[in-house]
From TrEMBL:
The keyword Cytoplasm does not apply. This is 3-dehydroquinate synthase, chloroplastic. It catalyses: 7-phospho-2-dehydro-3-deoxy-D-arabino-heptonate = 3-dehydroquinate + phosphate. Its cofactor is NAD(+). It comes from the Eukaryota. One of its GO terms (biological process) is chorismate biosynthetic process. Residues 195-339 form the 3-dehydroquinate synthase C-terminal domain. Its main location: plastid. Signal peptide: none annotated. The chain holds residues 63 to 438 of 452 of the full protein. One of its GO terms (molecular function) is metal ion binding. Belongs to the sugar phosphate cyclases superfamily. Dehydroquinate synthase family.
Length: 376
C-alpha cells in the first residue's frame, strides 16, 4: 500500500491518481513543492543508482536542487545527463548519450532513470530505460502541462525516425509520476496554453463536468493558479489512467485519446513539425472533428459552438493555418496510423457532450465537406 504523501507546510495537499495495471500499477502525484520532496521519489527507487535525464533548458532551472534533494535523502548515487532541447533531437543518435552515460557510470539493471522535463525528455528517457540492459526502472517528472496531462501517463515511449514521428519505441510504464505545479511557473505562455487543448480533449471525449468546469475556469489555468491547475491535471490523469487501464496497447478504446489528432497531424506535417505546437494543431483538429460530427448528425450544434469558444479563450487556433489545402489534408490524413486496411478511421463526437466513437463508418463526402469548409 501507498504511504500517504505528507504536504509541505503552506502548500496544498498533493492529489494522487493511481494507474491500475496489475503488478505494473503506479501512482501519479500532483502537487506543489514535490520536486524537492525527495522522499516521494526515493520511495519508488529500487536500487541505489539514479540517472536524471533532462535538457539544456530545464537543467539550469531545476536540476541542481532536484539532485541535491536526492543526494540528501541518503544512499543514492545520482548521475545526470543533459540533452539538447527540441523535438529535432528526439532521435536515436541523441538517445545514445543516455546509454553512454549509464554505462560509463556503471549503472546496473536496478538503476532508475528519471525524466526531468517535457514530453520529449519523458518519451526518450522511458525508451532509454526500457532498452537499458533489457529494462531499468523509470520515473517521470513532467515539467510541461502537455507532459503532466498526457505524455507522462500511459507508458508510450520512444523517439522519432527520419521517416516518421514516434516510429521507434516501446510500451514501458514508469514506477511513478511526479507533477509539481511549481515547475509550470517558468513554462512559456504558449507552451502552457497548448497543453490546455489536451485537457479540453478529455472533457469532449469523456467528461462533461470537466468541460463545464473549464468553461468557468480556463483563465485561472492561463494564470497558473495552482489549485485550478491541480484540479485540471488530476481529472485529466484520472481519465487517461482509466482508459489506459482498459486498453494499455491501444487495441480499442485508447484510440479515443486521438480526438482531433488526425486532422492535427495533417496540420503539423503540412507546415513542417514545430511551426505550430502539438496542442495548437490538435485544437484546430478538434474543431474540425466536431464540425464533421455535426454534419453527420451525431451532435448538437451547441457542442461545436462551445468547443470553439472554449479553445479561443485558451488562446488556441480554431482553424487550420492559412494556405493549407484540401489536398494536403487528404494526403497527410491517409498516412495516419489510424488507417486500417486502407480505410480511414477517425475519432468523432457522438451523442451528448462527453461521448465519442472511433469509426471508419461515415460518408466520405462529409469528410470532404468539413475539409472544404476549413480551407480557403
Ligand atoms: P517539449 O518536451 O519539447 O517541451 C516544450 C518546451 O518547453 C521545450 O523547449 C522544453 O525544454 C521547455 N520546458 C519544459 N519544461 C519547462 C519548464 N518547466 N520551464 C520552462 N521551459 C520548459 O514538449 P511537450 O509539449 O512537453 O511534449 C511534446 C512531446 O511529447 C512530443 O515529442 C510528443 O510526441 C510527445 N508526446 C508523447 C505522448 C505519449 O503518450 N508518450 C503524448 C503526447 C505527446
Ligand atoms: Mg496529443
Amino acid at each position: 500500500a501507498e504511504a500517504p504523501a505528507i504536504p509541505k507546510p503552506g502548500t496544498l495537499p498533493p492529489k494522487i491518481v493511481n494507474v491500475d495495471l496489475g503488478d505494473r500499477s503506479y501512482p501519479i502525484y500532483i502537487g506543489e513543492a514535490l520536486l524537492n520532496d525527495a522522499e516521494i521519489v526515493s520511495r519508488h527507487v529500487q536500487g541505489s543508482q539514479i540517472l536524471v535525464v533532462t535538457n539544456t533548458t530545464v537543467a539550469p532551472l531545476y536540476l541542481e536542487s532536484f539532485v541535491k534533494g536526492l543526494r540528501e535523502q541518503g544512499a543514492f548515487k545520482v548521475e545526470s545527463v543533459i540533452l539538447p532541447d527540441g523535438e529535432e533531437h528526439k532521435s536515436l543518435q541523441v538517445l545514445q548519450q543516455v546509454w553512454d552515460k549509464a554505462l560509463e557510470s556503471r549503472l546496473d539493471r536496478k538503476a532508475t532513470f528519471v525524466a526531468l522535463g517535457g514530453g520529449v525528455i519523458g518519451d526518450m528517457t522511458g525508451f532509454a530505460a526500457a532498452a537499458y540492459q533489457r529494462g531499468a526502472s523509470f520515473i517521470q517528472v513532467p515539467t510541461t502541462v502537455m507532459a503532466m496531462v498526457d505524455s507522462s501517463v500511459g507508458g508510450k515511449t520512444g523517439v522519432n525516425h527520419p521517416l516518421g514521428k514516434n516510429m521507434i519505441g516501446a510500451f514501458y510504464q514508469p514506477r511513478c509520476v511526479l507533477a509539481d505545479m511549481e515547475t509550470l511557473k517558468s513554462l512559456p505562455d504558449r507552451e502552457l496554453a497548448s497543453g490546455i487543448s489536451e485537457i479540453v480533449k478529455y472533457g469532449l471525449i469523456f467528461d462533461p463536468e470537466l468541460f463545464n468546469w473549464l468553461e468557468e475556469n480556463v483563465e485561472k489555468l492561463l494564470n497558473r493558479d495552482s489549485k485550478a491547475m491541480m484540479h485540471a491535471i488530476d481529472r485529466s490523469c484520472a481519465i487517461k489512467a482509466d482508459i489506459v487501464a482498459l486498453d494499455e496497447r491501444e487495441g480499442g478504446v485508447r484510440a479515443t485519446l486521438n480526438l482531433g489528432h488526425t486532422f492535427g497531424h495533417a496540420i503539423e506535417a503540412a507546415q513542417g513539425y514545430g511551426v505550430w505546437l502539438h496542442g495548437e494543431a490538435v485544437a484546430a483538429g478538434m474543431v474540425m472533428a466536431a464540425d464533421m460530427s455535426f454534419r453527420l448528425g451525431w451532435i448538437e450544434p451547441e457542442i461545436c459552438k462551445r468547443t470553439v469558444e472554449l479553445l479561443k479563450r485558451a488562446k488556441q487556433p480554431i482553424t487550420p493555418p492559412k494556405g493549407m489545402t484540401a489536398e494536403q489534408f487528404r494526403s497527410f490524413m491517409s498516412v495516419d496510423k489510424k488507417v486500417q486496411d486502407g480505410k480511414l478511421r477517425l475519432v468523432l463526437l457522438r451523442g451528448p457532450l462527453g461521448n465519442c466513437t472511433v469509426t471508419g463508418d461515415f460518408d466520405p463526402q462529409i469528410l470532404e465537406d468539413t475539409i472544404s469548409a476549413f480551407v480557403a
